[in-house]
Design a protein that fits this description.
homodimer; alpha/beta; Quinone Oxidoreductase, Chain A, domain 1; Rossmann fold; 2 domains; 7-stranded mixed β-sheet; 9 helices; 15 strands; MDR_fam (chains A, B)
């Protein structure tokens, strides 16, 4: 069923997953296209962004954001086209970045909507390298990681939109950069296209040894995207005063509860203590001053134009394909920034 | 055997403990009193400080300080009397703070020795409230914890020299302060003498519930001294942007290896991520600028004079009693700052 002007397809949270989401977690529903009222505009979704944080919104846990309600439309940022508008500053034909969620149509009064103009060059980039993932990489690495020239920076999920950007910025800043990714194809891309100094396949049996060999001077900054065994292999390599921006833990998002032991709590705390490590979590839209976004947009636009930062997208066709694409993403079966072409 | 002018008693590391130290860990040996040469001075130990960090020096692990060698004298700061001196700035009869270790006599060229003068008012305080433990509390709380008026600060080992000082400084800064200690006597002291708002006995069966009840607005700063079940009870109470100076983990120092599960690693990382928590380890003598020590000495001297900070010592008699006193300290069987009266 394609996008039409009569029907709004929406994907709702049908039940909260315990562990990995499955067929019962999300459900496609349809309804009439909503009508915008006075002071509102109607948006047609073009690109839907899929991101690991969405797994967290399926839970009912205390967190930085309100969970999606059962029966509610799944949260997402999209790039949409303005179809009709009674909102100042938005005209028919403009492209916008909007919190529409997983659906074809969205009525907005302009809250949290960013106008990209009528003919943006790469509209989908607002969901990736020039949007939340790119800004997350930039702010987390530079403001919490504080990398210095010559230091060693390690980042997992290195072919994903955040990890790839972290590593490329760290190279620009003069660091020795080691990525971690799943499989030979991704690792080759990370070294040959993105220019990391090395990339280790976390599926290798001797992964921890390979990581240690790639970091002969230890690790000064570990940008944490994944948790799990990668974290436990990194801890013994951290240098005194190492910094660890904590951005995600995708290896653990699908845990139904605490996993079996041993308990690595003492290892984590002991490393923080002995090595004087700083671990700091952050959420991109409330951990940094608003001015930083302007710096990011200026720097990143420049780096892209100069070819110093490269960016890879993986496009999934059709809204119906979105649930499986998210589940694949949570298992590391994506390659680059995942976007759904909705209409 | 008391202190004499003929014999140097010294306590050496006989073997590295696997788990809790025991009778085979430390050994008393004797030798002739060493003779100072040109440019050296002879120091007689008066007060020996016992501190939890000493357990770490018994291990052969990569850490911030070199381990004690097998057969080497156990590390310690002491307050000593200068018996004879060929070092400029030190005269016979001066009291000094010195890294003599667990022994009666020490020859020094003045390196890392601080002169306290001929008649210091409370010489032992240089090992406690006006020394390393006091400065640790001050710098860790104010520079990493950054408490703001009205915030909730939690500290464990609250009747110990670091915890007691952290809580009293937090009260001075206008915070709601909750201590954690072992047993009713310590808890009463923490509230009635030290002025904390509450103190929870970690031996209580409903400890986690009591802690939650004492922190109705959550926890903004958790000063980490202990690890273990106290840490795991604190994590669910941390507020967004909470800060956690990591100063020690005495509940875990005697672990022979990683304990049985479940693995709390995901709980720790998930809390850091969702709540944007900062956890930061520090070592007092290399994590802060030297000027901070002057600020500390000025503030703390003032607070002591005004009665805003109170300080409790527990004196153990005789060098031979030091090993058991350290083992008791590691099990929380001390009450206040532990000092050994050596001579």
């Amino acid at each position: 069923m394609p996008q039409t002007t009569e029907t709004n397809r929406k994907i709702i949270l049908a039940s909260r997953p315990k562990g990995a989401p499955d067929d019962t977690t999300l459900r496609l529903e349809t309804e009439a296209v909503p009508l915008p009222g006075k002071g509102e505009m109607l948006l047609r979704t073009v690109w839907l962004s899929l991101d690991p944080y969405m797994r967290g919104r399926m839970n009912d846990a205390k967190s930085y954001a309100t969970p999606v309600e059962i029966g509610g439309v799944m949260t997402a940022q999209v790039v949409a086209e303005v179809i009709e508008s009674d909102v100042a500053g938005f005209s028919k034909g403009d492209y916008v970045l909007a919190p529409s969620g997983w659906q074809d149509w969205f009525v907005s009064d302009g809250t949290q909507v960013l106008n990209l103009g009528p003919e943006p060059q790469n509209p989908s980039w607002a969901l990736g390298i020039l949007g939340m993932p790119g800004y997350t990489a930039y702010a987390g690495l530079l403001k919490i990681g504080e990398p210095k020239p010559g230091e060693t920076v390690v980042v997992a999920a290195a072919s994903g939109p955040v990890g790839a950007t972290v590593g490329q910025i760290a190279k620009i800043k003069g660091c020795h950069v080691v990525g971690i990714a799943g499989g030979a194809e991704k690792c080759t891309h990370v070294v040959e296209t993105l220019g990391f100094d090395a990339c280790i396949d976390h599926r290798a049996e001797d992964f921890a040894d390979q990581l240690a060999a790639a970091c002969p001077d230890g690790i000064d900054v570990y940008f944490e995207n994944v948790g799990g065994k990668v974290l436990y292999a990194v801890l013994p390599l951290l240098n005194p005063f190492a910094r660890m921006p904590v951005c995600g833990m995708v290896a653990w998002y699908n845990l139904p509860g605490l996993p079996d032991g041993p308990d690595h709590g003492p290892q984590i705390l002991s490393t923080i203590l002995r090595m004087k490590v700083k671990m700091q979590g952050f959420i991109i839209f409330d951990s940094f001053p608003a001015e930083l976004y302007q710096e990011f947009a200026r720097d990143m636009t420049g780096w892209l134009a100069e070819g110093k930062v490269r960016y890879k997208e993986q496009v999934v066709e059709g809204l119906e394909a979105a649930p499986q694409a998210l589940y694949d993403l949570l298992e590391g079966r994506n390659f680059g920034k995942v976007l759904v072409r909705v209409g």
